[in-house]
Specification:
This protein has 145 residues and is mainly α. It is built from 5 helices and 2 strands; from the N terminus they run ββααααα. The protein has 2 domains: 87 residues; 42 residues, no CATH class. It is globular, with a radius of gyration of 18 Å.
């Protein structure tokens, strides 16, 4: 059963949706377990490590998928979109930067990477600031010891 997902062509194939959901649940659960069980100090080492590991894993899955297209559901959907997406939202961003650079769009890759980081950090700050003004709520931007 094909359909449109938010204006983007997609497939509502139950196998694919199930693979993504199962992979996403596993990745998100692993991220939660590691982040809540490992002391990180001031620098968020668990999240940083998960972002790097998720990016590396996504690259590995992509390379395997290129050589075994028949494994798309398991590798791309369950592993890439699901598991890596649940484990980290950084892996897909990293893949996009690598693909741009690989396609000889180095300046675009650098611009995209810098703009993405600046926009994400600015968005968090702007969202927190707007919520404080609207609701006069103090958000815990830093954990107190």
């Amino acid at each position: 059963m094909a359909g449109r997902l938010g204006g983007v062509r997609g497939s509502w194939d139950r196998r694919r949706v199930t693979a993504i959901a199962v992979g996403g649940a596993a990745g998100a659960t692993l991220r939660w377990a590691l982040v809540t069980s490992v002391e990180s100090g001031r620098f968020p080492w668990p999240v940083f490590a998960l972002n790097v590991v998720g990016s590396v894993l996504l690259g590995v899955l992509l390379a395997v998928e290129w050589s075994h297209p028949s494994a798309r559901i398991a590798l791309h959907d369950a592993g890439g979109i699901g598991f890596c997406g649940g484990l980290t939202t950084f892996s897909t961003f990293s893949l996009e930067v690598v693909n741009l650079a690989r396609d000889d769009a180095t300046w675009l890759a650098v611009t995209y990477a810098a703009a993405s980081v600046v926009a994400a950090v600015s968005g968090v700050a702007a969202g927190a600031g707007a919520l404080r003004r609207v609701r006069t709520v103090t958000l815990p931007l830093e954990e107190k010891p």
